[in-house]
């Protein structure tokens, strides 16, 4: 009996690491793109760094929208893949694509037509508004391509095709960095365009990534990037997608917009704080790569297991995933601590900005543990079991009733020192731990959400 349990444990860990390594590489590349932007703009000036940092908040919000939609698709697709129903997966992809393209068009239109208004939300500094507006206009193309590729890659990951999506990310990253260098430093005969060049490079890399997705889809034997499925009707799957995906989408939008409010608060405390925070975000992203990758991989694997109706095995797998999460959270904190001396040495910021950056990084050495546990449970374990509603309610109350009001009060009413404001903002993850952990232990999140005879009605008609 003990030997059988050990074999099951080893099998789960093998499958987790098989999934998590490509996902970590993808997350690493995404973080590397952001850090490459900041490092190269470091040679242009602090204003460019600050402007791009603020304008990038819209990309962060949009990423969370696509992540939410992709998660909704993954919840269904992972379980239907465990069940072996590929047609259902294709229909779910089409449903997710409808929502993602609609939202992408809204963001792209705003970035193209109202970039100054978008920047004024974050800052009153006219120089930052001008630089950021130019950046946003060029990013409008990126938003449209992103709306397609993120959904397709999420579906590929949900069925275990993580190597393909990683290869595409490597290609997009390589092109992005090369073009960034070209447009910032005037290499390869390209003009020096500073912050605007970063946006052009990002958009071009996304266009190429979309083109590669179309090629992969053409060669694929199972899941295609087929836009005809956007118009395929299935009331049951649509209802399930709305029921599961909209809370996940609402969760990620609510959280990301609230998190962007942190930038609004810091943005009105001075350019030194904004510049320091832009470096801190880059370093923190590297610190969270491992734990966030573990959450994504765990969610996919648990979804497959639940789709096969092995519920007790899924519950045991969730416990193993939590152990791994605590380890990766601790490793993430150590990574931030190790990178801190290099960040402080190479950042070309003012003395005050360097002071802010040092203590912000120290706070983030333990903040990543809170983020790791909550992300694994809310975005990984709970959603794998079809429970996206709890996370939406929990994050919305935590961010909008606690963290954001606390930040505004601390900064603008009580006028506390900058580092006290930042410290209070970074308590958000730990405040919700008791409720998140209690919900995990209750087991109410564990459900098989697949259906039988999904296409019977269509065949009868």
Q: Can you characterise this structure?
A:
The protein is mostly helical. The chain has one domain (20-450). It has 16 helices and no strands. The longest helix has 40 residues, at 2-41. The N and C termini lie far apart (51 Å).
State the main characteristics:
461 residues; mainly alpha; 16 helices
Structural class: mainly alpha
Number of domains: 1
Give the uncertain stretches in residue-range form. Answer: none
First-last Cα distance: 51 Å
Shape: globular
Largest sheet: none
SSE layout:
Blueprint: H1 2-41, H2 46-83, H3 86-113, H4 115-120, H5 126-158, H6 162-185, H7 194-219, H8 235-267, H9 271-307, H10 311-346, H11 351-384, H12 389-413, H13 418-425, H14 428-431, H15 433-442, H16 456-460
Helix pairs in contact: 1-6, 1-9, 2-3, 2-5, 2-8, 2-9, 3-5, 5-7, 6-7, 8-12, 9-10, 9-11, 10-11, 11-13, 11-15, 12-13
């Amino acid at each position: 009996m003990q030997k059988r349990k050990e074999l099951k444990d080893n099998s789960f860990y093998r499958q987790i690491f098989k999934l998590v390594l490509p996902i970590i590489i993808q997350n690493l590349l995404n973080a590397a793109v952001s850090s490459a932007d900041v490092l190269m703009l470091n040679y242009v000036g602090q204003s460019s760094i600050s402007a791009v940092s603020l304008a990038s908040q819209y990309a962060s919000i949009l990423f969370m929208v696509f992540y939410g939609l992709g998660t909704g698709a993954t919840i269904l697709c992972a379980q239907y893949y465990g069940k072996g129903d590929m047609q259902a997966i294709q229909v779910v992809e089409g449903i997710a694509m409808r929502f993602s393209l609609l939202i992408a068009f809204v963001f792209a239109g705003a970035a193209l037509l109202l970039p100054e208004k978008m920047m004024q939300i974050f800052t009153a500094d006219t120089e930052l508004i001008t630089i950021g507006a130019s950046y946003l206009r060029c990013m409008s193309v990126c938003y449209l391509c992103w709306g397609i590729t993120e959904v397709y890659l999420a579906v590929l990951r949900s069925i275990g095709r993580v190597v393909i999506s990683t290869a595409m990310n490597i290609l997009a990253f390589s092109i992005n960095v090369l073009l960034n260098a070209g447009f910032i430093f005037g290499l390869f005969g390209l003009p020096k365009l500073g912050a605007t060049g970063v946006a052009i490079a990002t958009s071009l890399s996304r266009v190429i990534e979309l083109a590669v997705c179309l090629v992969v889809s053409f060669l694929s034997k199972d899941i295609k990037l087929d836009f005809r499925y956007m118009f395929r009707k299935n009331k049951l799957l649509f209802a399930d997608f709305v029921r599961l995906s909209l809370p996940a989408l609402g969760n990620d939008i609510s959280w990301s917009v609230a998190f962007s409010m942190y930038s609004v608060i810091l943005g009105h405390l001075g350019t030194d704080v904004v510049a320091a925070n832009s470096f801190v975000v880059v370093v923190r992203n590297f610190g969270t790569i491992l734990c966030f990758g573990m959450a994504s991989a765990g969610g996919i694997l648990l979804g497959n297991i639940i789709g096969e109706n092995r519920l007790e095995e899924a519950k045991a797998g969730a416990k193993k995933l939590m152990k791994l999460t605590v380890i990766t959270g601790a490793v993430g904190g150590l990574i931030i601590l190790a990178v801190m001396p290099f960040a402080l040495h190479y950042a070309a910021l003012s003395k005050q900005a360097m002071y802010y950056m040092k203590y912000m990084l120290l706070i983030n050495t333990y903040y990543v543990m809170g983020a790791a546990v909550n992300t694994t449970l809310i975005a990984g374990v709970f959603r794998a079991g079809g429970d996206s509603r709890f996370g939406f309610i929990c994050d919305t109350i935590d961010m909008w009733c606690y963290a954001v009001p606390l930040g505004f009060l601390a900064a603008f009413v009580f006028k506390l020192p900058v580092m006290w404001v930042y410290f209070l903002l970074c308590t958000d993850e730990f405040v919700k731990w008791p409720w998140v952990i209690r919900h995990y232990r209750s087991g109410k999140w564990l459900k098989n959400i697949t259906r039988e005879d999904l296409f019977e009605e269509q065949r009868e008609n």
